[in-house]
Please model this.
Amino acid sequence: MGALVRSFKHAIRGLATVIRTEKNFRWHLLIAAVVVAAAWYKGLSKERWVGLLIIMAFIMALEIFNSAIERLVDVLAPKTHSYAKDIKDLLAAMVLLVSIFAAVIGIIILL
Model:
């Protein structure tokens, strides 16, 4: 049981870190709050709620993954390797692409 509690503490600390240090993650949280409010106002079905929540969780998880890998790149090859910038740009492109599709899906669901 102690290991489980420690795991939750680490996860909560990681979530606090991403909220505190990553502006884009805070934007995703704000947008998610607006979407939840709009969905609640529209009285969405359970199925549509599930779809929206899965999409929001996926976007936030990708943003955390992006942040973690960017930090790893900074540690391993801060400015010494030409691929370091490419890796960060590719990660940002991943989050952007999925966010665009999530926005389209959200609009479809809410309209």
